[in-house]
Amino acid sequence: MNRLDCDVLIIGSGAAGGTLAGTLSELTDWRIVLAEKGGYFGSEFFDQREWAMRVLYAREGRRATDDGAIPVRGGQCVGGGTTVNAALCMDPLPEVWRRWREQRSLEGLSFDPTAADYGVVGLNLGSCLAEVRERIHVGLPEAALVNDNNRRFEDGCRALGWSARRFELNLRGCIGSGYCEEGCAYDAKQGTMITYVRDALARGVRLIHHCALTRIELEQRRGRLAAVGATGRVRPTDPGSRPNAVPPGRIEICARLVVVACGAIESPLLLARSGLGGAGSPLGRGLVLHPSLPVVGVFARPLENYRGLPGTVYCDQFVASHGVYFEVLFGHPVYGAVVLPGIGPEHFERMSSLPRLAGFGVMLVDSSAAENRVERSYEAPGYRIRYRLTQESKERLRYAAARAVELMFAAGADEVVLASDEPLGPLAAPRFRDPAQARHCAELRFEPHRTTITSAHCQATVAMGHDEESSCLDSRCEMHGIDRLMVCDASSFPGSCGVNPMLSIMTLARYQGRRIVAERERYGL
Ligand SMILES: Cc1cc2nc3c(=O)[nH]c(=O)nc-3n(C[C@H](O)[C@H](O)[C@H](O)COP(=O)(O)OP(=O)(O)OC[C@H]3O[C@@H](n4cnc5c(N)ncnc54)[C@H](O)[C@@H]3O)c2cc1C
Question: How far apart are CA 92 and CA 98, in angstroms?
């Protein structure tokens, strides 16, 4: 049994956990342990082979909803989602946080750059965002990194008179290899592994990877329940990973403050395994996925999609009216094969034309619904992710699908294909030959396993809110009714943050890190 003692235990090294470790180690000399379930794979390991890189993903990329219909992708490695994501950066939306503050009676969390939340000079989300942006090098990429797929999309938006915007990305010295989601072999993507976690390690934070913590240890202290540490198991180190700080076996880590940052699927499960939640509890409920509908265009001539940045352009024309973004992304062959429709000869035909395909996704900003949830299960894999599109989501997606088909034609496609085999009126399946046929999208039913929906932005399963009946955390991300236990990651959001979430999550983590330091007495630190 490995036994460790520290001041702060952070569980999960992704967007939130990595940022917290970097922030706390920058501002204090506390003894900090950063525990990560996945391996520590660096640029020396990233060989740009999609299949080999599945070790970077939760359940090797097979994590999905309970009906198997929607993949729920997430990183499971040092850096979490920031090691495998597309580096697309969107600032948190002040209006969303303002609404959360009002509806959920939250304190602090202000964007006003002059605000001193909790009486701490300079503490506000605006200043934390600026610090995060600087540390992870957020900026517009060079024009040379914008590839054909993105240019065609931009042309299509212009032809229709729709907004086409360039993404900011967290990059430094990018050579445009095109393999962001397989781990950056050039250390150009500035995820937490090579920014905040690297800073933390240089300052003495102890990183333990291959370490799945399975239970938060709780004790009664002065009549209240308090977290005192966590227990779990360290697996043998996988081939290709950097060496670990402790040998494989059981592990017990005692801490004055425990911060859970395992992401919106794993955080509620860890809490539930620790005896929290239960019947009627909001824990695990309200799952938001940002469900995405892939749209494929078949072009007459080959496009250069494998090189340059996969995503550099998006369209926000229908965000205010329908809560949907069109975002350019393109998969390499393995992911492409999963997304492209058809079986047998049709699938073969589609895969054969991969070099002539363009793609983008319709990303829906979905509303939190209590029946969409993550819960423990006694059957493998030990949990159930229950998510069904609501009628309201389907309605918005139908509208967006029709606009997306029009956009792909305006970009120059000869044929537009949705990853679906649902018959749409006169069409045997959603294979469109001219833009007028886009109206048939009104008949999409989004049946599980017939229309492909993907997801990678899970949020809102351990939500913040003042009311203890309907929420799990207070404004400090502290668990209601339990001392010295915080949950700070995508699960803490009360709903969708309204944009690609990485920057919103990192900003919240930076903010809570700075607040913890200012309020150290609260945690006996
Ligand atoms: C393929 C992909 C592409 C994406 N592209 C973008 C993008 O371009 N822009 C954007 O804004 N967002 C993007 N996202 C989403 C973004 O990366 C995530 O929203 C973000 O990383 C979530 O942050 P988090 O801290 O909540 O969790 P994560 O970053 O997922 O970190 C959680 C960590 O906790 C670890 N963990 C889980 N359980 C345990 C346990 N019991 N013990 C120890 N450790 C544990 C996990 O292994 C993981 O490393 C993408 C996501 C994916 C998967």
Answer: 11
